[in-house]
Amino acid sequence: MAMNLVTTALVLLALATGIVALAPRAKIPAEVLLILGSLILSLIPGLPTITLSPDIVFLVFLPPIIFGAAYFTSWRDFKANKRPISLLAIGLVLFTTVSVAFVLKWLIPGMPWAVGFILGAIVSPPDASAATAITRQLGVPRRLITIIEGESLVNDATALVAYKFAVAAIMTGSFSLGLAVGKFILVGAGGIIVGLVIGWTGTQINKHLKETVAQILLSFLTAFAAYLFAEELGVSGVISTVTAGLYYGRWVPAQASAQLRIEAKAGWDLILFIINAFVFTLIGFQLPVAFSHLHGYRTSHLVGYAAIVSLLVMVVRMVWVFPAAYVPRLLFRSVRESDPLPSWKNIFILSWTGMRGIVSLAAALSLPLFLPSGEAFPYRHLLIFLTYTTILTTLLLPSFTLPTLLRWLHIKSDNEAMREETLARVASVQAVLNGIEKMKTNGAYHPEHVNQLERRYLRRLETLQANLSNSAFSPLFDEDAQRRRLLRAVIHEERQALVGLRDDGKIHNDVMHLVMRELDLEELRLWTQRL
Asked: Does 331 have pLDDT greater than 50?
């Protein structure tokens, strides 16, 4: 049994790896290819039945996803855009949840209200991954990306808290709106407190760890600790994990060594890839099971339900986004003065980026199998089917139309990120030049070496300052780029020489890896150095 599970997991990852490998060539977000791959997988006859415990799905998949997204969130930009983010991540999520519940109750009159709210909560949070992959590639104003990412971070917490309330209503058979609102506030506030405590504890422990492997492992453990402790205390594990991730991302980078930052990024990227790959391909195995339990529905009805729910979540977003942008500025003078109205084009693109993804899939797969009475959880397979079709629709339509829309609307990057990057590099180079002036006087270094270093950084400063001009053109830019290409070519020759020495038995394998690591770090620096 264990061997079958391991084999199945490896097959799932192999399939996902093959699918994702096509993403750069196809210039399509990996999530889109994964969902299409899962659709193809579900059509293959004779697939094995794979059923994971719903609790395992939630516990294993969600904490790393949420913690990782929070860690890399810019706290400065998040605070600067807290009003639009809150309107989307809280207001729109709840509006979508209620809208889906009402429409589903209308479509299927005998369905309990709580089941409609479950589906509404599952499909209400957009996932920023696919949207930002497209918008970053094509270039859009930085604030638009910030709002999309900030919304995706907080809306998961809102939706999953609402989801748990709706599932609890089905499991217990009772629901009180007043009690639910009060508990919503209580579990949210409790989650924030627990997240801060766990995040602070993690950063304090991290200060005393010197081994990078231990520090990376601590970050993973912090994600799960934030979720588990909060759930044990009866507060929101999702909100706790978001809070811990934000706190961790705020303080740990300043504590971390260069090696830790590089290795931790690689480690987290790998874990998040495995989770995404596993969940998206796992749904391909789940769909035939769900379809086999939908024999009581006509095919035309199922297609109609899927189309209506998918269209509804997209329309509801548009209905919400435009008033959310205009109404606060009409009602409050302070908002008008501090935050001028963005272009309607940007608002439209924001309304069109409501792609659903990994969190919705994980929530659907984590639906309980049975009620406390032993009966099957009502409408479980229909909810999985509708969740999948909603994700499929909201991923495919925007993904394939966004590039065209951005070109038609002439939406381009405001170069704010590039300008900030240049300013940061200018400040760094100036700090180096100040340090060099001190080196000239203390006599600890050979004067010619110091002068060579100073000439190098003065040239670098000239290049950077030229790129801050209004024309954003540097006469040294092409020369600088050629220099980097030349250095990468030289590094390639060095690497080939090392491999040759190892293959000829002239150096030990450990020596090759030691020197090659230095070359790899230098090449990485050259690739990431854009100015």
From this structure: yes
